[in-house]
UniProtKB/TrEMBL annotation:
A GO term, aspect molecular function: catalytic activity
Domain Flavoprotein, residue spans: 1-143
InterPro entries: Flavin_trans-like (IPR036551), Flavoprotein (IPR003382)
Highest taxon of the lineage: Bacteria
Lineage: Bacteria, Bacillati, Bacillota, Clostridia, Eubacteriales
Name by which UniProt lists this protein: Dipicolinate synthase subunit B
One Pfam family cited in the UniProt record for this chain: Flavoprotein
Length: 180
């Protein structure tokens, strides 16, 4: 989970849905783990994720590194994924628990599913989305503009399609169309 705080409610709903079918190992960026915002308190997000999954939230690079090599997951879901994290992943920057978890997962050939929520996805971070869309084992939850008038460069994943995207990614397929 990354710091798209306004979508954390949607992310938690999807976490609950995924947990019905899958073992879920929660990972939070330092910003989510430490930051209180008008959308909620960090302690509440941590508590909810741990209650939903029955697992301790991983929140350090050291905790995230063994995920891939030890095959602790079958797939990695980044939900929500900020434009900042998306850009770091596209450029191979591994300086957060989430980017380390992604790197660790990809290096052993497992799928990574990105549930993007970014105010600049059609602007600054757009080129990085395109780069990742062409990366083996990276899959996107289908995207849409959330408010084309007030936020013309913003894209957000259709969170309700996360489960379907995960199932297809586990079979090596991208849910289509990517843009809706």
């Amino acid at each position: 989970m990354c710091g798209s705080f306004c979508t954390m409610g949607n992310a938690m709903e999807q976490l609950a849905e995924l947990r019905k079918k899958y073992f879920v190992l929660p990972i939070m960026s330092r910003n989510v783990y430490e930051t209180d915002t008008r959308f909620g308190k960090a302690a509440d997000f941590i508590k909810k994720a741990q209650e939903l999954t029955g697992q301790k939230v991983l929140h350090s690079i050291v905790e995230a590194e063994p995920i891939g090599p030890k095959h602790l997951v079958d797939a990695m879901v980044v939900c929500p994924c900020t434009g900042n994290t998306l850009s770091k992943m596209a450029l191979g920057i591994t300086d957060t628990p989430v980017t380390m978890a992604v790197k660790s997962t990809l290096r052993v050939g497992l799928p990574v599913i990105i549930c993007l929520a970014s105010n600049d996805a059609i602007a600054a971070s757009g080129q990085n989305a395109a780069r990742l869309m062409n990366t083996k084992n990276v899959y996107f939850v289908p995207l849409r503009q959330d408010d084309p008038i007030k936020k013309p460069f913003s894209l957000v994943a259709d969170f309700t399609l996360l489960g379907e995207t995960v199932e297809l990614a586990l079979a090596g397929e991208q849910l289509q169309p990517i843009y809706r």
